[in-house]
Every structure is written in structure tokens, then in C-alpha cells.
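Review form for a predicted model. The reviewer records the input and the model, then writes brief findings.
Reviewer: anonymous (R2)
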Amino acid sequence: MWKDLFKRAIEGGWLRVVLAALVLGRCGSALASAAGEVVVQDSLYGTSFPSPTLGWIVGAFGSIYRTADAGGSWQAQESGTLQPLFDVDFIDEQRGWIVGRLGTILHSNDGGATWRKQDSGVDKHLFAVDFFDANRGVAVGDWGVILTTADGGATWQGRDLGEDVIFNGVAMVDSSVALIAGELGTILRSDDGGATWVKQTSGVDKTLFGLYCADRSRCWAVGIDALLLHSADGGATWQVLNGATEQRALEQVGFGQALDNPSLYSVRVVGDFGVAVGEIGAVFVSEDGGAAWQRLEASKNWALPWFRDLALWPGRGGAIVGAHGHRIMIVDGTIAQPAEE
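Model under review:
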């Protein structure tokens, strides 16, 4: 089944467009129904759910959508920008931040009814943002950019290390501890709220995309070639749980390799339940708190999109978002079939 699905993806031009879509493109549009509900067709890059029923998704061309019924329906919110938006983080039902292309940072303190631009001070793409509370947050992105704020984004300070490396994921664990993941297996840790950063030993030299920490000790990172790493000591050392660690020449990476080891973009673990998602419709699930992972069989309805981000909450619920407006809800640990639109 996997090879047939992968063949369909290739024939549909997936290899030619997925990278462009992740950074610059727009694969669709948002259409309003007669009832005012929005049928989402934009490629989606980030999601945040401060509660099991209330959530946001962001994507291409400045798209922002909000649900108040656990993904049953979505309403568009005006972002004030056409720049692709790559990540969103809400700390409660009112206060959230979004980051995107060319240093874009947006903030809302009224549940997304209005979004206001914040001055990032940079024109580099920002790929991830995470806040611990209403004041302290970290944003990271292209060309080694690291930004921190202690006043809710009213001002942002550059904390770059002066290295040309792309940072793709960030996790602010508490008011002091934060971690960053990126190119070349890079893991950074801060113990002073992001003012200074120290390199950790990931044990791999491949790009890492997603990062999540359940607490000061337990963290997970995912990346190229289905890499899934776990740290039990706050990022000081990492164990490879899944994926290919060896480097291969480009001509050695065939269809079979890409199919067997798809890149993973996001990971979350809440309690005993964990989910990691990525390209070619890849979904991995853990039932033991992130120690062991099993890949799920792809649904024919998924049409092999890339899945870019996910949210999880207590009770084994969550949401997965990705290409072409894909929004897949997780209910009682079951990945639901996407609705036909």
C-alpha cells in the first residue's frame, strides 16, 4: 500500500512542490460557506490549542483560522499580512503569538479578534515560537536568528550566536530553561531565560525540525530521515529511538528510502500518549510516554500530504495540520479520518 500511495504522490508533483510550499507557497485558498464557516484549503504550518475545544491554525498568505468546537468548524481571522505564517503559540484563550516570513511577529490579547504586528528587529524568516507565560518567550529561525522577550513581545532582543545555522524548533520549559533544535543536529540549551545558550550533544549531524519538552528533563526532537530522538537529562545527551543516522549521497536516496524514512516535522508527548508527524503522510504514535514509537498505516483519504505540526492535550486528544488544508483531529487516541470538503 505504501509504495502505491508514494507513486501517487510523485505523479502528483509532491517532490517538486513540497519544499517551496513549506517556505513560500500557497496550495489553495479559504472559501466561505453560506453559514460563514470557512472551508480551509491553504497549506497549514502551525497549530496551538490552549484547551481541547479552542484552537488556532496558521499558514500560507497570512492565513489564521480559529475553532471553538474542537475542529468541527473554523472561522478566518484577519492577520493584516500576506506573509506565510509558520508557527503559533497561545498561552491561554486570549493571548497568543504568531511568527512567519521576513521577521513577522503578530500578537493578540483578545482571542485573535485583532492581531497587531510586533517589531522583531529582523528580516529573517522565523520558523518557531514558544512562550512560557504572558511575558517570557523565544522565537527562532533562519540564519541563526534567536529572539527573546521578557515583556510579551513589546520588545525583542537578538541572542544570535553568530553562526549560519537554521533553527526550526524551540521549547520554553519554564521561566529559565529553553531548548532549540536545528540544522546539523544542533541542540542548544539556555538556563537563564534565553540570554545565553550552550550547545548540547545530539549525537546526529542531520537537520532537526521539531522539538518538545514535557519538563526540564524529558525532551524529544524529530528530523530528516525519520529521526526521533529522546533526552532524559534536559538535552545534555540524546538517544536515537527511530530513523536513519548515516549520511548518504543524494543519488543514494531513492523512492524506497524516502518512503521508509520520511522526514518528521513535529512531535508531542502528553502523559503516556505521543504523536510525531511528517512528510508522505507519516504519523508515528507512542503508547508508553515516548519510549517506543510505531508508524501508523496511512489513510487513503490523506492523499500523502506533508503534516507540518500538531497539538496534543490531556485525554489523548489533539490535532494535526499540513498541506492543502489538512486538519485531522485525534480523539481518545484515535487519528480520525479527514472530512471530505
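Findings: The longest helix spans residues 2-11.
Further findings: The radius of gyration is 18 Å.
Recommendation: see findings above.
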